Amino acid sequence: MKNMFRSLEVAENRFAELPNVIGMGIGYKKRGRQDTDEPAVIFFVDKKVPVAALGIDDIIPKRIAGKPTDVIEVGEIRLLGRIDKRRPAVPGVSIAHYRVTAGTFGAVVKDRKTEELLILSNNHVLANATDGHDGKSRIGDPVYQPGSYDGGTDDDTIGHLVRFVPFSRYSRNVDCKLASIGVRAANAMIKTVRPHYNLRLETMGATNLVDCALARPAKPEMIGPEILEIGRVKGSGEFVPGTRVRKSGRTSGLTTGTIKAVKVSLNVNMGHGNDVVRFNEQVMAELKSLPGDSGSLIVDEDNRAVGLLFAGSNEYTVFNPIQTVCDHLGVDVV
């Protein structure tokens, strides 16, 4: 390969401005559809054009500086946007209930009874943070990909709300004083999570274990299982403090970190005055996440699913254990 550098340099100087050429590099020549072990200067083109349709000065020579060339059609190269409309849509991109701004498509899951493939994310992403009685959403509501904040409209409906675990709510004064020294210590540990969530432990009120919901794709071929920048999930995994994890989210993309605490109890201020939801049995990780990352699947270093992200900050993330999510919804991650 070292002897190819001179040929590539000549190619870049002489042929980089040819119409339809969008790039070049060093690789191995293809013959027909078969790869070979013959080094070549590779020209990448938007679309191959018959030699007869090219001018004499636009034809790529078969050899440059004594080395063979090859031409590969790659189409238009563009950034893989997380807020764009994608079909098939894959986990890691923008998605939301039609009344919600935007969240993250977490994973493709399979219904344990029907075996149909469904879209997994949070209740507050796919079902508008409903308790099931408040009229915020109904089964059958449209789900947009991308979410409305990212330009999604009725034309971008990827599916419909099919199932959710309702929130159990209670109201309280979010500034109330906590008498327990142990509770204050726990709050100190999690005070770095963004103020919007106002995480405080309480000793009373209805509790929740999950923030999750499912959407049925309008057509099965409209979704794919490989998580953007992570790939295919390989079952579910166990975790303890210190386990390395990562996620692929709509806003902050691919981030990695470490689980800091398990069996976490906390209250989440949903951002509407005294609208508070309490969670038990949660997991906290030192893992960057931003608004819009809600719904992201958390995986370990072996791509095994461990959780579903629902709250977080620039440095910390809170997630539901994935097995709890799957058992509540009657599904398995594929």
Structure commentary:
With 334 residues, this protein is mainly β. It has 2 domains: 2-73, no CATH class; 94-333, Trypsin-like serine proteases (Thrombin, subunit H, Beta Barrel), CATH 2.40.10.10. It contains 4 helices and 20 strands. The chain has helices spanning 5-15, 123-126, 181-189, 322-329; strands at residues 21-31, 34-45, 63-64, 67-73, 94-97, 103-104, 107-111, 117-121, 142-144, 157-164, 169-170, 207-208, 213-217, 244-249, 253-269, 276-286, 297-300, 305-312, 317-321, 331-333. The chain has an 8-stranded antiparallel sheet. Strands 14-15-16-19-18-17 form a 6-stranded antiparallel beta barrel. Strands 1-2-4-3 form a 4-stranded mixed sheet. A hairpin with a 2-residue loop joins strand 1 (21-31) and strand 2 (34-45). It is elongated.
Task: Break the fold down into its secondary structure elements and pairings.
Blueprint: H1 5-15, E1 21-31, E2 34-45, E3 63-64, E4 67-73, E5 94-97, E6 103-104, E7 107-111, E8 117-121, H2 123-126, E9 142-144, E10 157-164, E11 169-170, H3 181-189, E12 207-208, E13 213-217, E14 244-249, E15 253-269, E16 276-286, E17 297-300, E18 305-312, E19 317-321, H4 322-329, E20 331-333
Parallel strand pairs: 2-4, 12-16
Antiparallel strand pairs: 1-2, 3-4, 5-6, 5-9, 7-8, 7-20, 8-13, 9-10, 10-13, 11-16, 14-15, 14-17, 15-16, 16-19, 17-18, 18-19
Could you say what the CATH architecture of the largest domain is? Beta Barrel
**Would you tell me the overall average pLDDT?**
85
Instruction: Compute the number of helices.
Output: 4
How many domains make up the coordinates?
A: 2
What is the CA–CA distance across the termini? 40 Å
- The third-level CATH topology of the largest domain is Thrombin, subunit H
Could you state the order of secondary-structure elements as H and E? Answer: HEEEEEEEEHEEEHEEEEEEEEHE
Helix content: under 10%
Low-confidence segments, given as residue ranges, are 171-204
